[in-house]
Amino acid sequence: MSELPVVVIGAGPQGLAAAAHLVERDLDVVVVERGTGPAAAVSEWGHVRLFSAWPELTDAAGRHLLEPTGWSAPASGYPTGASWVDEYLAPLADALGERVRYATTVTGISRQGRDKVVEGGRKSQPFVVHTMDANGADARILARAVIDASGTWSLPNPAGADGFAALGESRAADRISYRIPDDVSKLAGRHVVVVGAGHSATHAVLRLSELARRAPGTRVTWLLRRGSATNVFGGGAGDDLPERAALGSRARKVIESGVVELVTGFRVAAFRKDADALTIVAEDGREVADVAHVYALTGFRPDTSILRELRIDLDPVLDAVSGIAADIDPNIHSCGSVAATGARQLAQPEPGFFIVGVKSYGRAPTFLALTGYEQVRSVVAHLAGDHEAAARNELALPETGVCGGSGDFDDASSGCCAAPAVQQIGRPVGASV
Predict the structure, then answer these.
(1) How many other C-beta atoms lie within 10 A of the C-beta of residue 363?
(2) Which residues, at least 6 apart from 270, have a Cβ–Cβ distance to it below 8 Å?
(3) Strand pairing of 278-282 and 268-273?
(4) Residue 223: beta bridge partners?
């Protein structure tokens, strides 16, 4: 199988970095990307500014590949997703040339001539990556190894608090969005609701708060499942990612100023669709009425359907790679307190197959680009037989000053974070809405 390429699924940040490392080690690589250009998922949130600075958004092997072309790494600043693509990811994809195949969707991965059940001779057979192009033509690529860096962007979590779509959620699909909004001007003078507690939800709330200041009559309601807003606003001065600290501080200010109404302990159970508006119903019976649009930003989950004929080991709680689950659990860790994860932790029962990047984290939101770059560096070193480099830890993460909020789901005083000066902002559990 040494004559076969390593197939990388996804031409996003980690997929392109993996390809650059493979090229640097003189290993053949084919990158398959279902989008029509590089970093298609990043391009979809191109209007959002990252809270990682430029030095944390480029990978060493990528820089080595680009520098002979006259490219130079941006030294400072916080790019938008679009700038990240234009100034780094797209040039890197161009440098990889025909190794990257666009408009190619992976429909499955298997071992040649072996389904998941067959053991005999399994490890000696190459991987088969089943693909389909934009015209519906299917094909197969034989591979010595496969690195799945396909991410989680295609599978957002629903608004329903129990992990499934709430009652009526699918019928209200025309009034529910699952991505951070860009232009929200059409919602001027309307009631808009954001569901979720992470950075995506915070971005959306801040964008909508700007609209509320400009357009009288615009109402913004922010629904949190947790009984407290304690962990929503970040680590403040204790966060070594200043843009993320600023994001949390701005969110706190719009709540305290009354521009945005925060409702805690609200777990969405149902949507009722009327002629002109939605009513959102919580598990405890509370209602938020007269809603024009909902932004359900409750995270993402990995799509493992293409892996059904491989032997993989995922954590039953996080849907993350089992070998890293304990180190990334958001109930314990923030993205600055996770340990480095490499080939050893990412190894699967199917030798030669690795899940990397945000997909390796499953539902955990504690991922940073630097974490993924360290993963692919280690995995490629392993595939190249450089086990010393694969075992080495080259990751240095910024401190966050925040945690994931372990402790009781409803208790503001429990968990791994010190209690902030303000324990409760917004309506407490049980209050009328």
Answers:
(1) 18
(2) 166, 167, 168, 280, 281
(3) antiparallel
(4) 195, 263
Coil/strand/helix, residue 142 = strand
Residues 33, 100 contacting (CB under 8 angstroms)? yes
Helices 199-214 and 242-256, packing angle to 10 deg: 50
DSSP run (H or E) holding 271: strand 268-273
CB 129 within 8 A of CB 123: no
Nearest-angstrom CA–CA distance, 205 and 211? 10
- Give residue 314's identity as a one-letter amino acid code: L
pLDDT by residue (tens digit) across 28-61? 999 999 999 999 999 999 999 998 899 999 999 9
Structure tokens at 178: 């699952």
Question: Taking the alpha carbons of 146, 151, 157, 162 in that order, is the dihedral positive or negative?
Answer: positive
Rounded to whole angstroms, the Cα distance separating 332 from 403 reads 6
Amino acid code (one letter) for 165: A
pLDDT digits (tens, 9 = 90+) for 87-129: 999 999 999 999 999 999 999 999 999 999 999 999 999 999 9
Phi and psi torsions of 184, nearest 5°: -110, 15
CATH of domain 173-296: 3.50.50.60
Q: How far is CA 119 from CA 124, 126, 367, in A?
A: 11, 14, 35
Could you check whether 6-154+300-391 and 173-296 share the same CATH topology? Answer: yes
- Assign 301 to helix, strand or coil: coil
Tell me how far apart the alpha carbons of residues 430 and 423 are, in angstroms, rounded to a whole number: 16
Q: Can you give the residue ranges of every domain in the chain?
A: 6-154+300-391, 173-296
Q: What spatial distance separates the first Cα and last Cα of the chain, rounded to whole Å?
A: 63
Is the entire prediction scored with pTM above 0.85? yes
Buried residues in 376-408 as b, exposed as e (16+ CB within 10 A): bbbbbbbbbeeeebbeeeebebbebbbbbbebe
Rounded Cα distance, 321 and 344, in Å: 11
Distance CA 130, CA 141 (A): 7
Beta-bridged to residue 327, according to DSSP, are: none
Give the span between the Cα atoms of 367 and 364, in whole angstroms.
7
User: Which CATH number is correct for 6-154+300-391, 3.50.50.60, 2.40.50.140, 3.40.50.300, 3.40.570.10?
Assistant: 3.50.50.60
Distance CA 85, CA 37 (A): 10
Surface-to-core class of residue 133, CB atoms within 10 Å of its CB (0-12 exposed, 13-18 middle, 19+ buried): middle
CB atoms within 10 A of CB 297: 26
